[in-house]
Structure formats: structure tokens, C-alpha cells
Amino acid sequence: MSCDPCSISETASYPPIKGADHLGWGMKNRLSRLIGPDGRCFYLPIDHGYFLGPTRCLERPGETIAPLLPYADALFVTRGVLRSAIPPAISMPIILRVSGGTSVTGHDLADEALVASIDEVIRCNASAVGVSVFVGSDYEKQTLKNLADIVDLCEPFGIPVMAVTAVGKELERRTAKYLALACRIAAELGARVVKTYYAADDFEKVTEGCPVPVVMAGGPKCETHREVLDFVHDGLQKGAIGVNLGRNVWQDAYPAAMMRALRSVIHEGLAPDQASELYTELAHSEKGRV
Ligand code: 5RP
């Protein structure tokens, strides 16, 4: 870390994100740990077990993420996995998942509640929290109220809330029209960052209609690594600030190569062609999963 006063004044406008000028110091400090000086971010989510149980390749989360952490900017995780699998000396910011209470075997994934208190968020030293909203579901009002409630609890402590625009099992809902609606509502209710899906058509309508930064999730595993690099690159061109990608990273045959290639697209401006070459090169030296 530099002690040069010039470098301090250069960082005075951090974080370089939409709508951050009026924020208090604590909120700005947390956001600046979550969003880089280039305005971009790369989050690694390992929260899937909260409704999917021991998800493929995430059976032992600590082992899965150890080779991936050098390439991530933050970890999205539940308190249970945080305590059991993440070393407390980690310097990486933690985004704590605080909604849940459902499972893939239950009646409706949307029927979520808040599952951690503000005391717990602070005890875990979370840099942010994540909560799902299910717009258009039978539990729309309940999950939007969860969001508003956690915003009220976190804002006095300068802790940003990331809204997750979830679709449950209804993957066909991932259209720009629906996602724009869900993202805008989440921002209106106080989310500082909104996580949503990429939509191949009109994705810019999602980012342009949302007054806070938009981060892309991956969804179920794509067929090829190239598809992932392509959609991430396109989404960034259309206004997303980064990704929160899980299965398309740690279920890939070469997860560390995938992380490195994605990082090159997100933070280093590589085109998908170049990033794909980097992936192939690194995959040769990575002991792949069979
Ligand atoms: C699970 C989540 C995940 O964090 C999110 O879906 C990103 O993971 P993936 O890229 O695997 O979809 O919120 O509910």
C-alpha cells in the first residue's frame, strides 16, 4: 500500500460507481473493496448449498475454492460455509447470503425469509449481504419486503445490500423485459448492487434501467467455456460491471483456467478470442477434473 498523499487523493472519488457520491465513509469503503478502481468486479458464489444441498463440485467448498481465490474479488457465501470452510484470516471481502429457508424439494423456492440477523452480519465481518427477490412469483411481496427489511438493518452500519433477482426453476423468465423490471424494483427498494442474469437480446435495457451497478450471474452450466466468455464479454459491453459466476466456473473441467480467463475479460479487457486462447493454454497445465 502506497503512503504517497497523491495516491490518496486519487482514490478520494472511490468507488467509481453509479450513485455513490453521497454515501458515508463506511459504505464507500466497503463498496471500494467490492468494486475495483476500474469499476469492475468478479465475485465467486459458493452459496448454492443453501437450497441445492451438496451441489456437484461444491461438496467440499474449501477444497473447491482454494485454487480459485487468487482470481476473485469477493466470495458470496452463507454463514455456515463461511464458518466451516473459510479461514478467518482471509483478506477477501465476504458477501454474506442472508435469505433462504427453502430447498429444491420444497413447495416453492421463492418462499424465502431472512435467515441471518444484523448482529450475525457484523459478527461475520461481511462487506455486503445478498438477498434474493422473486419478482412475479407468489412470494413477490414477501421477498421484496425481505429486501427492504435487510436494507433498513444494514444501511445504518454502512453495509451494502446486493439484491439477487432470482427466477427459481422458471429459467424462461430470463428475458431483458423481466430482468429490467426486477432489477429496477430491487434498486428502488434500496439495493446498492443488483445481481441478475444475462439476456442475449436487449441486455442494455436491463443495465440502463437500473440506477445502481448490475452484476451478472451464470445460471446452470453452459456447454462450452467459450459460451461463458462470450456472454460475459457482451454483458460488460452492455453495461454490467462484472459477474458473480459459480457453476460455470467450479463445474468447469479446468476451474482455475476458467477463473483466469474470465478475469482477463473482466479486468484486463481481453476479447473472448484471446481469453479463450489463455484458457486453453492454462488448461494444459491444470490437473483437470474428469
Ligand atoms: C444461488 C445464487 C448464486 O450465487 C448465483 O446464482 C450465481 O451462481 P451461478 O453462476 O451458478 O448461477 O444466488 O442462488
Quick summary:
With 290 residues, this protein is of the alpha/beta class. It contains 13 helices and ten strands. The strands form two sheets. The chain has an eight-stranded parallel barrel, surrounded by six helices. A two-stranded antiparallel sheet has the order 4-5.
Defining traits:
single chain, binds ribulose-5-phosphate, alpha/beta, disordered N terminus, TIM Barrel, 13 helices, two-stranded antiparallel sheet, 290 residues
User: Within the CATH hierarchy, at the fold level, what is the topology?
Assistant: TIM Barrel
User: Which structural category do the helix and sheet elements fall into?
Assistant: alpha/beta
CATH architecture: Alpha-Beta Barrel
Domains counted in the coordinates: how many? 1
Which regions contain 5 or more consecutive residues with pLDDT less than 50?
1-12
Strand order of the largest sheet: 1-2-3-6-7-8-9-10
Count of distinct strands:
10
Number of helices: 13
Name of the CATH superfamily: Aldolase class I
CATH C-level category: Alpha Beta
Radius of gyration: 18 Å
**Multimer state:** single chain
In helices, the fraction of residues equals 25-40%
What can you tell me about this protein's structure?
This protein is α/β, with parallel strands linked by helices. It has one domain: Alpha-Beta Barrel (TIM Barrel), CATH 3.20.20. The protein is built from 13 helices and ten strands. The strands form two sheets. An eight-stranded parallel β-barrel has the order 1-2-3-6-7-8-9-10, surrounded by six helices. Strands 4-5 form a two-stranded antiparallel ribbon. Strand 8, helix 9 and strand 9 form a beta-alpha-beta unit. Helix 10 runs parallel beside helix 12 and helix 12 runs antiparallel to helix 13. The longest helix has 15 residues. The chain is globular, with a radius of gyration of 18 Å. The termini are far apart.
